[in-house]
Write a structure and sequence with these properties.
The chain is mainly beta and 351 residues long. It contains 4 helices and 20 strands.
Length: 351
């Protein structure tokens, strides 16, 4: 089991870039220390929002993508706490963004519309992705049309976050396949100031939010430039390859409500050997799940393993043809296992 756990922990590290978290938290690095759960007693109760639940959620997404802001984000999962700085400029329909870590290993993320550059200075490595998923304070992906079939939205008054009174929204799952969320939204800008991931008991598994933030102020273009020159760095370009798993003879059947966001190839090193791994990313709009399929992976002697860290679950199993399947996502263990069990070997389509 030790070997299996190490393999899963490496997968968790692969999915923990030091930028902003997605709402479920898979892209590690940011949020408020757990503490201020209770609403500010002095704050007046928020008036009932006359908009539909879908319109309220869409306005949060729009606010995150169509405004300029800068602030410090704090991420907390258990006793793990990290901080990042985020600077976003939105002008003339163009989105630019820079996120960099304030503790731990230096890492930086530069976004220009749908292109994201991930800078790893200690490795002198630059990874360029097209259509990389958005992260806090945006939702991980566009909310699917059936989103509210899987979550119920409840309004829960107000709470003070980063110096502002925010409206509190609870997203309660309608089934056991996903966790719940508690969102604090600043009513003037509509920007999400804090997001918490909750167990069914109400326990906070993970939270991310601003400790300070300035919204709507002009952004100096110099603040959006990378911290290091990247000349001479190794460059990896990742792009979506939409039917790669089927072309290679594998199918995945996700639980209801999860839609495929991205599919591509990653290179995995086993000792002195390197192999290609199919990565498929799914989301229900909040929770994100990655399915890795490694054809011809080294045979594992250990039993299938499950590793849980806060809301993040990693599951690994071996297929009959020898491929290794690893699932990592911000979902309960049973959901991650459902993803893993659904992966099947099938004949590739005729050419």
């Amino acid at each position: 089991m030790i070997v299996a756990r190490r393999h899963l922990q490496r997968r968790l590290a692969d999915l923990a870039p030091a930028g902003r978290c997605a709402l479920g938290g898979c892209a590690a690095l940011l949020l408020l220390g757990a503490g201020a759960r209770a609403a500010d007693a002095a704050a007046p109760a928020a008036p009932r929002d006359a908009r539909s639940d879908a319109a309220v959620l869409q306005s949060i997404q729009d606010a995150a993508r169509h405004q300029s802001f800068s602030g410090t984000l704090i991420y907390q999962r258990g006793d793990e706490i990290h901080a990042s700085r985020v600077i976003q400029s939105y002008s003339g329909g163009e989105l630019r963004e820079r996120v960099f870590t304030l503790d731990g290993q230096p890492r930086e993320y530069i976004r220009h519309d749908e292109e994201v550059q991930c800078l790893y200075p200690q490795l002198q490595r630059l990874v360029i992705e097209q259509g990389g998923k958005h992260s806090f304070p945006a939702f991980a992906s566009p909310l699917p049309p059936d989103f509210l079939d899987h979550y119920a939205l409840h309004r829960e008054g107000s709470e003070r976050v980063a110096g502002s009174n925010c409206e509190v929204l609870a997203l309660v799952p309608r089934d056991a396949a996903r966790y719940g969320y508690r969102l604090c939204v600043e009513p003037v800008s509509g920007l999400l100031f804090r997001a918490q991931t909750l167990k069914e008991t109400g326990e906070v598994l993970e939270q991310v939010g601003f400790s300070d933030v300035r919204v709507g102020e002009p952004i100096d273009p110099a603040q959006l430039k990378p911290s290091w020159p990247t000349t001479g760095w190794s460059v990896e370009r990742r792009s979506s390859q939409t039917a790669e798993s089927e072309h290679r003879g594998y199918t995945v059947t996700p639980p209801t409500g999860f839609q495929r966001l991205y599919e591509g190839l990653r290179h995995i090193v086993h000792g002195k050997q390197q192999s290609q791994t199919i990565q498929i990313v799914y989301s229900d709009g909040l929770a994100t799940v990655s399915v890795f399929i490694e054809p011809g992976a080294p045979q594992a002697e250990e039993a299938p393993a499950v590793h849980v860290h806060g809301p993040l679950t990693a599951v690994s199993r071996q297929l009959d043809d020898g491929a290794r399947v690893t699932v990592v996502g911000e979902v309960p263990p049973a959901t991650a296992e459902s993803f893993a069990d659904s992966v099947k070997r099938s004949p590739p389509p005729p050419r």
